[in-house]
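Lecture notes, part 5. Sequence design as translation. It can be helpful to think of inverse folding as translation between two languages: the language of shapes and the language of residues. The source text, in structure tokens, appears below.
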């Protein structure tokens, strides 16, 4: 969440910035009313606590002197009743303020372009040139239809729309991509490989910003008295590892990676994205997460994005880096780079990785801090996350960019050792 100082001391300016950058209308009147009442009730609560303590001591003194304490005891009882009501109201006000604060998006960095949607994004650079084909290009669905390697019909029978069954050599290629990415990020890029739960509690979802705002996009499973949620990305469990913790300075930057299933219950129709594996309810990603010192998070953001770029370069997949505008960024981000890979069948670039610096936004929600050696005091650290990269979309890109006229697929050289030396899927 935002620094409370912004909502208390710079409310009007913060509301203006949120409206200009995020098109988010902060209910200033409601916030001011809640905050004013909170201050009033908190002051009265403290007064009542002091008064109760003073009168309670007076009862002890009076008893010691053999004096009548009936009136004093009645006064203390009345104070206790008012204090109980005051404390209850204070709890309600704090919860209302917290819920309001949890729904406010992060403020973009000054260098982030202002825009409403993807049309306001700014291209940073490109790598590679799209391949020229001398035959009619097939999309990944048609390429995968041979031998039933990519089977949406069976998946629909099993689970419904937006699921896919992969078989044979295509399933092996999908697995090879994930193994390649993990090896690259752990051995060459220095990330610690983790295996994390796919079901997490509400505190974890709240910590990274999925709750309460995006509950409709989540798959929810009741377990006992508490709900659990299927993770939309392993960013959630990886980042929450430091929840309610104080990280020592020597541990930073803390870099972790995980290959996991991801689940998103996104509603609505997405036109051509309904076909095939572009937009699925269940998919796989190799995620990158970093915890960084605040003054180093910008450099860590560049490094993380570069790590994702290396995946595409080693696979020989043309891509471009985009700086997202304020209206296209995620809820928790202060700055985001998207990597878009070239898809020949669509004759355009499509997102395959999104790398975000969230500043201290998630850390404040999680109470995740680092001990600043200059002050010796705990302070909110900065969290970053990125796809390194989406495995299914990478499979699509490999299939389409490495397709041959006969419908076979050449295996990129860096993947062949994960495929038992196989150079072509035929």
């Amino acid at each position: 969440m935002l620094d409370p100082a912004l909502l208390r001391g710079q409310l009007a300016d913060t509301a203006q910035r949120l409206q200009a950058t995020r098109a988010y209308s902060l209910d200033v009147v409601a916030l001011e009313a809640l905050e004013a009442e909170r201050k009033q009730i908190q002051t009265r609560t403290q007064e009542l606590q002091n008064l109760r303590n003073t009168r309670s001591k007076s009862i002890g003194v009076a008893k010691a002197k053999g004096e009548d304490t009936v009136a004093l005891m009645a006064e203390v009882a009345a104070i206790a009743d008012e204090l109980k009501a005051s404390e209850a109201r204070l709890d309600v006000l704090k919860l209302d303020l917290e819920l309001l604060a949890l729904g406010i998006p992060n403020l973009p960095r000054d260098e982030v372009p202002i825009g409403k949607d993807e049309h306001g994004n700014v291209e940073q650079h490109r790598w590679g040139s799209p391949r020229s084909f001398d035959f009619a290009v097939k999309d990944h669905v048609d390429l995968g239809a041979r031998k039933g390697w990519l089977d949406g019909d069976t998946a629909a029978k099993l689970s419904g729309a937006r699921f896919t069954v992969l078989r044979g050599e295509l399933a092996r290629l999908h697995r090879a991509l994930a193994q390649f990415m993990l090896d690259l990020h752990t051995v060459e890029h220095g990330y610690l490989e983790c295996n994390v739960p796919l079901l997490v509690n509400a505190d974890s979802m709240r910590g990274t910003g999925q709750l309460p705002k995006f509950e409709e996009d989540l798959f929810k499973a009741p377990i006992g008295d508490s709900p659990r949620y299927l993770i939309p990305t392993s960013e959630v469990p990886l980042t929450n590892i430091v929840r309610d913790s104080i990280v020592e300075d020597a541990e930073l930057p803390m870099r972790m990676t995980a290959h996991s299933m991801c689940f998103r219950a996104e509603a609505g129709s997405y036109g051509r994205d309904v076909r095939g594996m572009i937009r699925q309810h269940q998919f796989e990603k190799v995620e990158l997460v970093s915890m960084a010192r605040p003054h180093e998070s910008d450099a860590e953001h560049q490094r993380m994005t570069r790590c994702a770029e290396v995946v595409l370069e080693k696979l020989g997949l043309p891509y471009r880096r985009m700086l997202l505008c304020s209206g296209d960024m995620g809820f928790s981000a202060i700055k985001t780079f998207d990597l878009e890979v070239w898809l020949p069948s669509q004759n355009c670039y499509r997102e395959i990785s999104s790398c975000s610096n969230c500043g201290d936004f998630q850390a404040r929600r999680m109470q995740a801090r680092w001990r600043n050696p200059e002050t010796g005091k705990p302070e909110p650290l900065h969290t970053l996350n990125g796809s390194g990269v989406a495995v299914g979309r990478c499979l699509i890109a490999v299939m389409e960019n490495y397709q041959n006229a006969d419908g076979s697929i050449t295996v990129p050289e860096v993947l062949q050792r994960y495929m038992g030396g196989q150079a072509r899927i035929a």
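The translated text above is only one of many valid answers, since several sequences can fold into similar shapes. The chain has two domains: 27-102, 118-425.
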